[in-house]
């Protein structure tokens, strides 16, 4: 009787194979969860990385805008160019009022200082190169104050980057003695400008001019490339503004050669 009872008893515990199947299923679930979490974390990182490069590209574009867009306006309509500064500031604050477009408003606010300086100098003071740097520094106190408050980092670092490029370009003009050509080209008729550009180009092509061009280009490259390793938007804005100075200066050189 006891034997019959024992033989009819079926253990309720799961077999070893069943336990292994459950363990495999659990491990697969964990791996799937880890994969999902990894994907969800990498998506914001990829978006952030893409946005930093967009900021860099926008900074390059905004440095070239005053050269190719503001210059024609300010020559004939300096008051309009100056008034447009108010529009840029209004637009920047409008963009900053929305989280999705905050960074672009921030960048545009820094651009407003460069536009204001360009409107003032090229509108009324362009005949005297000595006034160029003092006018370009017009937004420096505001930028330093904002950065001390940790506010508007993208735009203010963009402004500082464009300022660095401007300072080094003007330093080159002083060292190579190009200021007299600057003054001449601002007062002569348009048909005489090509000859002045050719004379300035001759000055640039001397060993002294070429040596300093290489030195200052290397300085700009170093200042512009090093911040890119930090992978932060405001440093990308700074680097874009600095490196685009080389692009703008190269375009001016090509224009002088083609004149």
Write the layout of secondary structure elements.
Layout: H1 2-7, H2 16-76, H3 78-96, H4 102-125, H5 132-136, H6 140-148, H7 153-175, H8 179-187, H9 193-204, H10 207-225, H11 233-258
Structure report:
This protein is mostly helical. It has eleven helices and no strands. The protein is globular. Mean pLDDT is 84; it is low at 1-14, 17-23 and 36-45.
Record keyword descriptors for this entry.
single chain, 259 residues, mainly alpha, 0% strand, globular, disordered N terminus
Q: For the residues shown, what is the average pLDDT?
A: 84
Q: What kind of sheet is the major sheet?
A: none
Question: How many separate helices?
Answer: 11
Give the overall shape, derived from the CA principal axes.
globular
State the helical fraction.
over 70%
- Taken in chain order, the helices and strands follow as HHHHHHHHHHH
Look at the helices and sheets and give the structural class. Answer: mainly alpha
Cα distance spanning the termini: 117 Å
What is the CA-based Rg, rounded?
A: 31 Å
| Residue windows where pLDDT falls under 50 for at least 5 positions | 1-14, 17-23, 36-45
**Strands, count:** 0
| Strand residues, percent | under 5%
Write a short abstract of this structure:
By secondary structure, the protein is mostly helical. Helices cover 82% and strands 0% of the residues. The protein has eleven helices and no strands.
């Amino acid at each position: 009787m006891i034997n019959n009872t024992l033989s009819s008893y079926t253990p309720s515990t799961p077999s070893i194979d069943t336990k292994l199947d459950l363990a495999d299923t659990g491990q697969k679930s964990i791996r799937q969860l880890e994969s999902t979490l990894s994907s969800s974390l990498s998506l914001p990182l990829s978006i952030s990385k893409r946005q930093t490069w967009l900021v860099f590209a926008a900074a390059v574009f905004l440095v070239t805008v005053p050269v190719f867009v503001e210059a024609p306006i300010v020559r004939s309509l300096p008051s309009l160019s100056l008034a447009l500064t108010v529009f840029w500031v209004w637009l920047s604050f409008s963009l900053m009022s929305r989280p999705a477009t905050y960074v672009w408003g921030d960048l545009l606010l820094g651009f407003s200082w460069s536009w204001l300086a360009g409107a003032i100098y090229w509108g009324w003071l362009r005949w005297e190169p000595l006034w160029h740097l003092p006018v370009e520094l017009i937004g420096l106190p505001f930028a330093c104050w904002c950065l001390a408050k940790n506010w508007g980092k993208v735009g203010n670092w963009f402004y500082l980057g464009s300022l660095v490029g401007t300072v080094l370009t003007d330093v080159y003009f002083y060292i190579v003695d190009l200021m007299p050509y600057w003054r001449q080209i601002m007062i002569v008729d348009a048909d005489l400008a090509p000859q002045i550009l050719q004379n300035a180009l001759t000055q640039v092509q001397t060993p002294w001019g070429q040596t300093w061009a290489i030195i200052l280009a290397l300085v700009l490259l170093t200042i512009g490339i090093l911040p890119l390793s930090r992978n932060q938007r405001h440093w990308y804005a700074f680097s874009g503004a600095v490196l685009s100075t080389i692009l703008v200066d190269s375009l001016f050189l090509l224009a002088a050669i083609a004149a």
